[in-house]
Amino acid sequence: MKKLISIITILIVCMSVAFLTNASHIYKNNNINLPDEAVFEKILSVDVGIGEEEIGYSPKLEGVTNEGPGSFAIDNMKNIYILDTLNKKIMVFNKGEFNYNINIDFTNYARDILYNKGNLYILDESNYIYSIDLNGKIKNIYELPDDIKAFQVKRLSINNQGNIVVHLDGYEYNINENFKSKGYSFGQDSKLISKFIDDKHIKIIENINSKKDRELEIELAENSGCVHIIGMDKKGNIYVSVEEDIPDSPLVLVEHTIRKIDLQGKQIGFARIPLEEYYNFPLRFANVTENGEVYIMALKENCVEIYKVILGKTYKSKIEDLKEKAKKEKQRIQKEKEETISIVNLKLKL
Question: Which segments does the entry list as coiled coil (predicted)?
Answer without folding.
Answer: 312-343
